[in-house]
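We both want to read discrete structure tokens more fluently, so let's practise on a single case. Would you write everything just below, so we can both look at the same thing?
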Amino acid sequence: MTLDLLTTHYNYYAVVLLLGIGLYTVIESRNLVKKVIGMNVFQTGIFLFFITLAYRAGGNPPVVTEGAGPYVSLLPHVLILTAIVVGVSLTAVALALVVRVYSEYGTLDEHTLEELYHD
């Protein structure tokens, strides 16, 4: 039972891997562009997690017919679609800010920017 549970829920391994890679990149990287990429990887892990939770074995689309059985909720899918749009917008704004920071200071290194700010 335990081995079957571990081998059939591989989506959760992908979620943990994406969240871990994204979080590590955001925390450990000194480059601002790499931080934005790490944020996107982390966000993709969140999306996969919610879509995985919304899965229902044997579920049918929510079209009422006779004997259709269990229905799948569309709400998680709609929320993730909205989150993807917001995420793309956030990425565009973040990259625009990164371009502005580079044009102003000539560097994308976080520690160098902190030193420039405190001087």
Observations:
- The chain has a mean pLDDT of 89.
- The helical segments are 2-8, 10-28, 32-54, 75-105, 110-118.
- Residues 75-105 form the longest helix (31 residues).
- The chain is about 75% helix and 0% strand.
